[in-house]
Write a structure and sequence with these properties.
The complex is a heterodimer of chains A (278) and B (251). By secondary structure, chain A is mostly helical. Chain A is 76% helix and 1% strand. Classes of the chains: A mainly alpha (278), B alpha/beta (251). Chains A and B meet through helix 7 and helix 8 of A and helix 2 and helix 3 of B.
């Protein structure tokens, strides 16, 4: 059957536009759904008080703090490891079998379901290393989970730094490490920061890996060996056990707003960093 | 007249490609040597082997010696960072680093261990003056270097090399991307600079070689065909290929 190219052109544009539109609609629907049910619950008291009756009433303060410290530990551990690995792979090794294997390994790591990470973290950190359900166990598990993202984005960022910069730097008497430190990294920074922010986003939203490793205590942690409950775990428990859908949506709304604002900050930061030298 | 650099039986390979074939000759101190030849003749490879930048290509292999003041720069005890401060290079395209004008100039010296602010400021002023750029940028030293025009950027690159206090300056077609006025300014700077430095310039422009070169070397397909005083090369070349190249029969 012959279709007039002009018509087929129009049909294709239509199909592509519908695909784009559907994506946006789903995104906005999720956000509006969550916020419309959650926002009415959220006020200063909700954010700043402890839960009462297992979360049936009261606020979510410890879960906000739990999410924050867990993510912080994950980023503090994963950033130097990830950026270091990316520098090694791009600057200090020649493209070959070994880099391919390492990269493939990192990709596989990224594809492992988070519940497997949870199980792994539970067995290694909680049980074998006797860290118990704690900020440390949870943070380290999350760190391993976001490591591939940070390696991958840092590698891409480092590769976009023009080779001529490296040559110039070396030609004025800089060593390889001087060049990496003073020229390559500053110029790759926007991309690296993006990778870290993506890692933050993933850590904040993670549930399965955390529930196995950080536990679900509602007390305020006083050390790295204390158990915490993150917002996403709190949401899961509230809704799964039917404790309070109202407070579950409130928690979800806070989570969504947090992730959105982190993305906005990331964009703003990236623009600022890239514009500085132009 | 003293030899600054002596090249002895230099061969350079990139993988299977024999880029430089048995090059032997001397570079005189405080003179400008112009290296000419068509694209792919090995003149840039020759230049980059003088400060060991060729090593950045992993498949590079070489044999032979390059003596700088009598000492082989390929000896294992040579620190390439120190060598590259002694033999500075200016690339074909203006390549300021994405930093401010003054940071571009102090980048190398700070890594070399100069910390005193007064000393660095003096270095900035001196090198910019020597590159004929001081008057144009003295009020905006903290602007990003990328905001300068192409000709200004290239003079900044010259100043950046001068700030290292080198002994030899390598120039790899430094005017290829510039307009005639910028080119004239850079050639003017070269004539002043040769009092204190030994300069080797690679150029595609035979007229430029004739204008600035004290000596001229003609490269063709990785071989050094002829090397002599510039006047002699351009008026009475001894090799037929040299004559054909400078008269524009090929290239």
């Amino acid at each position: 059957m012959f279709i007039n190219p002009k018509i087929s052109q129009k049909i294709m544009i239509g199909v592509l536009a519908v695909a784009t539109g559907l994506t946006l609609i789903v995104l906005f629907y999720i956000i509006i759904f969550m916020l419309s049910r959650g926002i009415p619950v959220v006020d200063w008291k909700f954010l700043s008080t402890f839960p009462a009756k297992m979360g049936k009433s009261g606020g979510i303060l410890p879960t906000i703090i739990g999410t924050f410290v867990l993510t912080l530990v994950a980023i503090i551990v994963a950033t130097p490891l990830g950026v270091g690995a990316a520098i090694y792979l791009t600057e200090y090794t020649r493209e070959g079998k070994i880099t391919k294997i390492v990269r493939f390994g990192a990709e596989c790591l990224a594809g492992i379901p988070s519940i497997i990470f949870g199980l792994f973290g539970f067995i290694l950190f909680v049980v074998t290393l006797k860290m118990g359900w704690s900020i440390l166990s949870g943070g380290l598990t999350l760190a391993f989970m976001i490591l591939p993202t940070i390696i991958r984005t840092s590698e891409e960022a480092i590769k976009t730094v023009p080779n001529s910069y490296r040559e110039v730097s070396l030609s004025v008497g800089a060593t390889k490490w001087d060049t990496v430190r003073k020229v390559v990294l500053p110029n790759a920074l926007p991309g690296i920061v993006t990778g870290i922010i993506l890692g933050v986003g993933r850590s904040i939203g993670e549930t399965a890996a955390v529930i196995f490793t950080a536990g679900s205590s509602l007390r305020l942690p006083t050390s790295l060996y204390d158990s915490v409950r993150t917002m996403s775990v709190h949401f899961y428990i509230l809704s799964r056990e039917g404790i309070s859908m109202k407070n579950a949506y409130g928690t979800a709304a806070v989570l969504v707003i947090l992730v959105l604002s982190i993305n906005l900050i990331a964009y703003w930061l990236m623009n600022k960093l890239t514009k500085r030298n132009q | 007249m003293q030899n600054k650099i002596s090249v002895k039986n230099l061969n350079v390979f990139f993988g299977a490609d024999h880029a430089l074939k048995n090059i032997t000759f001397d570079v005189l101190e405080n003179k400008i040597l112009a290296a000419i030849g068509p694209a792919g003749s090995g003149k840039t490879t020759f230049l980059r082997s003088l400060n060991r930048l060729n090593e950045l290509a992993p498949e590079m292999k070489y044999s032979g010696e390059i003596l700088l003041d009598g000492k082989n720069i390929y000896d294992p005890d040579i620190d390439t960072a120190v060598l590259r401060r002694r033999i500075g290079i200016i690339f074909a395209l203006p390549l300021p680093l994405p930093m401010t004008i003054s940071e571009n100039l102090t980048y190398g010296p700070i890594l070399a261990g100069i910390k005193k602010k007064s000393e660095l400021e003096e270095l900035i002023e001196k090198s910019l003056k020597a590159a004929f750029l001081w008057d144009e940028v003295k009020d905006r030293l903290n602007d990003p270097a990328m905001r300068l025009s192409g000709g200004q950027q290239q003079r900044l690159c010259i100043a950046r090399t001068l700030a290292l206090k080198p002994e030899v300056i390598l120039m790899d077609e430094p005017c290829s991307g510039l307009d005639p006025i910028s080119t004239a300014k850079i050639e003017e700077a070269m004539m002043v600079l040769k009092k204190d430095y030994t300069i080797i310039i690679v150029t595609n422009n035979t007229k430029q070689a004739a204008r600035v070169g004290d000596n001229t070397a003609f490269f063709l397909l990785g071989e050094l065909i002829e090397y002599n005083e510039t006047g002699k090369i351009f008026t009475n070349p001894s090799d037929k290929r040299t004559e054909e190249y400078i008269s524009g029969k090929f290239g």
